[in-house]
Amino acid sequence: QVQLVESGGDLVQPGGSLRLSCAGSGMIFRFSAMNWYRQVPGKQRELVAAITSTGSTNYADSVKGRFTISRDNAKSTVYLQMNSLKPEDTAVYYCHTLYSFRDYWGQGTQVTVSS
Length: 115
What we know:
The mean pLDDT is 97. The protein is built from no helices and 11 strands. By secondary structure, the protein is an all-beta fold. It is 0% helix and 52% strand. Strands 2, 4, 5, 6, 9, 10 and 11 form a 7-stranded mixed beta sheet that branches.
């Protein structure tokens, strides 16, 4: 059974930084593309960053230059380094993968950017 467990969400001031982690299990992690999404109440979940099995990355325009996605296959973990955080980055952040033709999501971690 594939499981994704996020951690690292917190309350941070504008301009601050956070690093989110997502540990995967029950899957061949190194072969899997991994994604970070975020969602605010009343809005659709949006793709923030993606990383392929070979390390290619892609970002939403709203976070380019501020967020960095990376992976450590030895630890079966994907990271999201978030710098220069803005109040509009406040959301629940979810880790996601498509594995064996099924979507898997973590439980989410809350990021709040506020002074």
